[in-house]
Amino acid sequence: MKPVSTIEGRAYPLGLKNVDTDMIIAAAWLKTISRAGLGAGAFEALRREPGNVFDDPEYAGAPILIAGDNFGCGSSREHAAWAMLDRGITAVIAPSFSDIFSSNAFKNGMLAVVLPQEAIDRLIEVAKTDPIHIDLDNQTVTTPFQDRFVFEIDPFRKHCLGNGLDEVGLTLAMDAKISAYEQNVAADRPWVAGAVAA
Amino acid sequence: MTQARTLYEKIWDAHVVERRDDGTCLIYIDRHLVHEVTSPQAFEGLRAAGRPVRRPDLTLAVPDHNLPTTARVDAAGHRLPIADAESAGQLAALERNTAEFGVPYIDAVAERQGIVHVVGPEQGFTLPGCTLVCGDSHTAAHGALGALAFGIGTSEVEHVLATQTLLLKQSKSMEIRVDGTLGFGVSPKDVILAIVGRVGAAGGTGYVVEYTGSVIRDMSIEGRLSVSNMAIEHGARSGLIAPDERTFAYLKGRPMAPTGADWDAAVAWWKTLPTDQGARYDRVVILDAAEIAPNVTWGTSPEDVVPVTGIVPDPESFADASKREAAQKSLDYMGLSAGQRLQDVAVENIFIGSCTNSRIEDLRAAAAILRGRHIASGIKQALVVPGSGLVKRQAEAEGLDRVFTEAGFEWREPGCSACLGMNPDKVPAGERCASTSNRNFMGRQGPGARTHLVSPAMAAAAAVTGRLSDVRELMG
Ligand code: SF4
Fold this sequence. Notes:
- The structure holds two protein chains of two kinds.
- By secondary structure, chain A is of the alpha/beta class.
- Chain A has helices at 21-24, 44-47, 79-86, 99-107, 117-127, 155-162, 167-172, 175-188, 191-194; strands spanning 6-9, 11-13, 64-66, 91-94, 111-114, 132-135, 140-142, 148-150.
- Chain A binds chain B through residues 1, 31-36, 76, 78, 82, 104, 107-108, 166-169, 171-172, 174, 177-178, 181-182, 185, 189-198, and chain B through 17-18, 26, 28, 30-31, 37, 40-41, 44-45, 49, 51, 54-55, 57-58, 60, 66, 86-87, 89-90, 93, 104-106, 124-125, 127, 130, 153-155, 158-159, 162-165, 167, 256-258, 262-263, 265-266, 269, 422.
């Protein structure tokens, strides 16, 4: 995964509360074989509404989404994070997230930034005309108008995101230990590996 | 003297690669089953990062969910196309991905093909004391052989493909003991339905369960597979059963099981696995076999279980408000009313199949009821779908296919079929199905479909009478 340090650009000023995973990507899209391409189905129901932010040329290609409470509630489908990333959204700022969504976002290198509602209100104002700047190292969200909001993030997740370490990458860094375990098993229980000859 | 440990703790301890300070462990995965629905994005992730599959030799892929169960080749032996383009795409992706990454693959038209949870035990891929995962929540089934088996999400599938490990926290342990002797006409499916009814759909959340007691001990491996299969329906990620002589006898000589000196060493280790005397479980639930009847579900959660001789419960009879509301919603969806006798409920569809009940013993149990009988005139569709090509061949060798077709059933190719609405086999909206599968969720067998979970013999009885019926009345 690409390391994250700063994300700068326009932000969709969505502001909606309880955006559920069905709204992010509907069940009909789950027969796909790819993480890529799901962007076409992202926010399908919302995009049917005239004047929605996703089809407003003002925000075309925005890397940030600003939303209300409880973002990503509903099912565990990882397709929700994939769909947003495929649309180019690499960070969401909201007052709260569902646990599963923030974990899925993290597993896919997407920033889920938690800020209080007052900050969200201000950022939505700014987002309508100007870019937003997210700095992971300093844990800040800033605007061209001297706004500066500090956010909290789990140190382990920050480390992983900042270094582009996905969980697979992290575990692969323990390769020597895994190999040592495999050697022990090969000696103690050789049939575990020997049995499979498909 | 070492501390007394449960079966679960012994398997866990044997698979710890590293223990972190916060208690999280890196756990080695011995066996990984792969199917077409939850794997494509995992392979794509590997490809994007330029990573190989670490241990293709511990991995086995087989298509099942999307496959139509109608003929797969024409008279000339040519493969028939799959009409649904997206299903075809997912199936083709599995074939491509397994070829690219060198993962052993059982082809859709191979005789060994079948439902992933039928194929694993049947091939001897599933072994006692192993950790086994699959991107599918019914992976718990493999616990019947004493494997620590559980379902995982797509990121975890990718993690296992790349590293052969998972980061996990140890679960709490629960013993579910079924003592006594099962009554006439009561099957393993009735046992697990009784357990789900007792523990509740979420009662096992956070636990790894071990099923014990004389009923489980006396049960065949196929029966045990039906029990462990539904562990997830009472919320448990895994449902273990201690390996014993029956387990070893079942596995011996299977294509992927160890042989020779390896077999002897394996059996010696497997014998050390059962829970020690004095080991503690965090929770114990005890059922009396004598109280288990042939069961049927009335609602849209697998916990909505009653004896077939019973009545549809009154939503008002539930103590908790959310359950009252859920029950009323269920009855509306199911088109049932409180107090109605289950045996008066007419069904239009019969489904005998799924990873819960599609093995040879299941088909024999259903055929025993159907022999010399015919499905009732109100039955619109009666499907019997063997769990694998090998089950199908065995059944045909025993003449069971003729018993089914003469009774008016359709004899199909192996796959998940009408267990879920992903392939062409579905139950039409508003119609009722007596089904041997494991989930009666709203829309599970197709939009608007009404599912009653039952055992294979009970499904056969419903086919003959055209309504939910007590199979004991049809048994000689
Ligand atoms: S038969 Fe049903 S429960 Fe079993 S793996 Fe297939 S879809 Fe899942």
